[in-house]
Write a structure and sequence with these properties.
about 160 residues; mainly alpha
Length: about 160
């Protein structure tokens, strides 16, 4: 037995398989449509030939439709009640799980704000204020140097 496919195993035209399958599907659909049409024609002929039986069948169909409608309404009502209970459970879950989580996040935010405030105070006390004092002192020295230089020039200009 060879693992290679022979020419009899595979068709030469790969579209031949789909064409055959398409034809078979079309034939099946056509047959189903003809059967449904024949059944409908038979029902119409039967109902037209026997008016008393038609009235009885009509009444039975109306009763079954009403019963079906009642069952559907009850099912929708039951599902609505179930939805309300599930929504209530969801709200309870959110209250018990989400609110503590939010308060924990709020505590973390307050702690972060305290840390930022402490860092800003530290930088202000340890970095900014000494830098400002140094800059003020240097500005004073520069002003004093200018004043001294002006006095020296004034003194030299008098000579």
């Amino acid at each position: 037995m060879s693992s290679q496919p022979t020419s009899s195993d595979t068709p030469e035209n790969p579209l031949a398989i789909t064409n055959t399958a398409d034809r078979q599907a079309k034939v099946v659909v056509l047959l189903v449509a003809v059967v449904v049409l024949l059944v409908l024609v038979g029902v119409v002929v039967f109902l037209a030939s026997n008016p008393a039986r038609t009235a009885n069948i009509r009444d039975i169909v109306l009763i079954l439709s009403a019963v079906g409608l009642i069952v559907v309404n009850l099912a929708v009502g039951l599902l609505l009640v179930l939805l309300i209970f599930r929504l209530q459970l969801l709200v309870r879950l959110l209250i018990t799980e989400l609110i503590p989580l939010i308060s924990e996040v709020g505590q973390d935010l307050r702690q972060t704000a305290r840390t930022v405030r402490g860092t800003a105070t530290f930088l202000s006390d340890q970095v900014a204020q000494p830098t400002i004092r140094l800059a003020s002192f240097l500005a004073g020295l520069k002003g004093a140097a200018r004043a001294a230089n002006w006095k020296v020039r004034e003194h030299l200009n008098r000579r």
